[in-house]
Amino acid sequence: MRDAFDALFAPASVALVGASDDASRIGGRPLRYLREAGFKGRVLPVNPKRETVQGLPAYASIAALPEVPDTAILALPAAATLQAVEECAARGVRSAVIFSAGFAETGAEGEALQARLTATARAAGMRLLGPNCLGVFNPALGYYGTFSVILDREMIHPGPVGIVSQSGAYGAHIAHLARARGLGISQWITTGNEADIDVAEALNHMVRQPDTKVVMAYAEGVRDRDLFIEALETARQMHKPIVFMKTGRSAVGAAAAASHTAALAGSDRVFDAVLRQYGVHRAATTAEQIDVAYAAASGRFPAGDRVGIFTMSGGFGIQLADDLEAAGLDVAPMPEDAQKELLDLLPYASPRNPVDATAQAVSDLNVLKACVRTMMERGGYDAFTAILGTGPGSKTYADPLREALMQALAGHEGSIRALTMSAPVEAQRRYEADGFLVYEDGSALAHSLGALARFRDAFDRPASAPAPMEPLPLPQGPLSEAGAKALLKQAGIQFPAEHLAPDAEAAVQAAGALGYPVVVKICSPDIAHKTEIGGVAVNLKDAAAVRQATAEILARARAKAPGARIEGVLVAPMVPGGVEVIVGVTRDPVLGPVVMAGLGGIFVEVLKDVTFRAAPFDVPEAHRMLREIRGYALLEGVRGAEPADIDALARLLSDLSRFAAAHRDGVVGIDLNPVRVLPKGQGVIALDALIELEAP
To answer: Which UniProt keywords apply (predicted)?
Structure first.
């Protein structure tokens, strides 16, 4: 049996329901495109009002078709779509594409109609794409199951770029831009309202296609978290870059996304961090998405971060150096002896890096060849860049310039080579045929090379392999701090030795056993924020202070939270020193359980210096997570401070992620705040804990 995606992308036969003789209409365009592209499969137009459509025999209904098609394209109004789906299901059609809008994105009535489509298809084992989508195409087979106008003048050439988009218009736009950039497309799919097939399933399919080397994706939200993460990890392991455009960064954008395809955007910061976790490049603009996909389409990545710059203009060279460093790359200087050799050749050159050969290289291409050859042989660069300006478009200079560059780079064919130029498209294509990446803007070149280096780093690391945690029995109802800590201790989280005391005298005894100074805190499953009721006293240095603080805390708790269940007070030792951090778990509505980490105090309250990871993850991933914190240097030790036990903090994050994943359906959130990261080798201690459980 052919699977759904095989039927969608490579059908042996396709029914076009609502086929039109007018090739400019939604029901006419797919038929026109299939014929013009030379599609070899059987095309079966369905239109009860016509005997022929665009020269092909037409059929009155799906039931009247001479065979069961692999897929059906439904170019019908929303009101007629349910009946067509029912007829396809009755006939045994394996998949259907629904163009029409007017379903879940319009409100409750449309949502109910869409649900009926889905239920009908699922009962018959039929897969649906859409509604409210632009369909699919597969240029290698000449199969165009779409009504997109981008095919009006020219079809898409086959190539290495796969496109997956929730938005049909955006998917069509980037396909058009990719074509203009000289990029061919392997397969293209738009998922629309995702009544059945969603962007996660489509992405999972796309990254596994042999002809796909890079994927451009667009999403406003994700419905299937696990399948989405599986797709990202599969792409990483297969060394296939994903360049993602995720909208909904702002509250307005998230609301617009919800009304567009009825997709929940979730937390943008969480989504951003999860993309980084799996080595996906998130593009800020459409131009950036095209630029990075273009660079990655060759499937080649730099071995390291060292980049050499050749220029004939000092100003442009400095600008590119700034951009490359901003992209995280190393504009390393040429070796001193190599610089001296270049100065002997050209005394007024700047041989450091950028290597500025000045305008002399324009009149004497031997100078250019000597500089470039020395850079490649002596500089140890992983990528070569050159700023060529308008030279490649010159009638008299273009060919000699290109030949000189190729001669200078001979023997270094495996290196990444990228140029900036302002030249006609045909000149750019000639350089591309010689293995160059060509950009007009130096900043776009730099950011693209930076993305290639990050892809390489992601591809080189082994898969995150956290040991699964056996689920623990979760108690009913809210937990006190003592209850939360008792549960988390079973997950390997370390807390200070502390005692639960029902009254002041018991608290004094506990403090004496622990040693002074101590902290006393109210302990109640109904008081989550203890400081708000004056429920914490710190740095208590003797029995009298403990007795008085305990009595006052219990009295305030009864007065300010009269209905709260009071277990007593927790007595714990003061934990001096170390670096204060905050750690937590939240259940994102889109991406499920995610772990948060950041520096405590002002860093989290004002600077929001936190980062996230999808649970579960291993210790190496926890280290990568921590390095994203802007204040990470404080953990390493600054101004004479001892380095903190970062290894212990990473283990805590990984353990917490395993706990969160094992209890994803029962735990809504966890706060460990503050957490003290002690000096290196001394461990990490969580001083407070709060767990929110799913209501029964």
So the answer is: ATP-binding, Nucleotide-binding, Tricarboxylic acid cycle
User: Is the CATH number 3.40.50.261 carried by domain 156-299?
Assistant: yes
Fold classification of 579-693 is D-amino Acid Aminotransferase; Chain A, domain 1 (3.30.470)
Given a contact cutoff of 8 angstroms between Cβ atoms, the answer to whether 33 and 45 are in contact is no
Amino acid letter for position 161? V
Residue 61's pLDDT is 97
Can you tell me whether residue 432 is helix, strand or coil?
helix
Scored b (16 or more CB within 10 A) or e, 19-46 reads bbbebeebbbbbbbbbbebebebbbbbb
Give 540-590 pLDDT, tens digit per residue.
999 999 999 999 999 999 999 999 999 999 999 999 889 999 999 999 988
Q: What residue ranges do the domains of the chain occupy?
A: 1-132, 156-299, 307-460, 497-573, 579-693
Q: In what order do the strands lie in the sheet with 71-74?
A: 42-46, 13-17, 71-74, 95-98, 127-129
Mean pLDDT value of segment 483-505: 96
Q: Tell me how many degrees the CA angle 372-374-380 measures, rounded to the nearest 5.
A: 100
Place of tokens 């293995």: 435
Enumerate residues 6+ apart whose C-beta is below 8 A from 39. Answer: 141, 142, 143, 144
For residue 189, which of 451, 24, 14, 6 has the smallest C-alpha distance?
Answer: 6
C-beta separation of 310 from 386 below 8 A: yes
Q: Which residues are within 8 A (CB) of 425 and not within 5 positions of it... i.e. 6 or more apart? A: 182
> Which CATH entry fits the domain spanning 1-132: 3.40.50.720, 3.90.1530.10, 3.60.9.10, 2.60.40.10?
3.40.50.720
Residue position matching structure tokens 């199969």 = 143
Q: 117 near 86, Cβ under 8 Å?
A: no
User: Which structure tokens are listed for 311?
Assistant: 């220029």
Residue 391 DSSP symbol: G
How many other CB atoms sit within 10 Å of the CB of residue 554?
Answer: 20
pLDDT (average), residues 396-402: 93
* 259 band by pLDDT with thresholds 50, 70 and 90: very low
- CATH 3.40.50.410 is right for the domain spanning 307-460: no
pLDDT at 423: 96
Polymer length of the chain: 696
Of 277, 332, 301, 318, whose CA–CA distance to 448 is shortest? 301
Strand partners, 568: 523
Please report which confidence band the pLDDT of residue 692 belongs to, taking 50, 70 and 90 as the band edges: very high
> Alpha helices of 382-480 — where are they, by DSSP H?
398-408, 425-433, 442-460
Q: The whole model's pTM is what?
A: 0.93
Strands (E), 553-629: 568-573, 579-588, 592-599, 610-614
613-616 long-range contacts, Cβ below 8 Å, gap at least 24?
Answer: 613/273, 613/274, 613/277, 613/653, 613/657, 614/229, 614/274, 614/277, 615/585, 615/656, 615/657, 615/658, 615/660, 615/661, 615/664, 616/466, 616/468, 616/469, 616/654, 616/657, 616/658, 616/660, 616/661, 616/662
Rounded CA separation 477/222 (Å): 31
343-390 tens-digit pLDDT:
998 888 899 999 999 888 888 999 999 999 999 999 999 999 999 999
Asked if 124 contacts 160 with a C-beta cutoff of 8 angstroms, the reply is: no
Cβ distance 657 to 626 under 8 Å? no
Residue 540 pairs in a beta bridge with 518
User: Given this model, what pLDDT does residue 1 score?
Assistant: 36
Alpha-carbon dihedral sign for residues 24, 19, 178, 180: negative
Distance from C-alpha of 300 to C-alpha of 416, rounded to nearest angstrom: 7
Half-sphere exposure of 80 toward its Cβ, with a 13 Å CA cutoff? 10
Strand partners, 588: 592
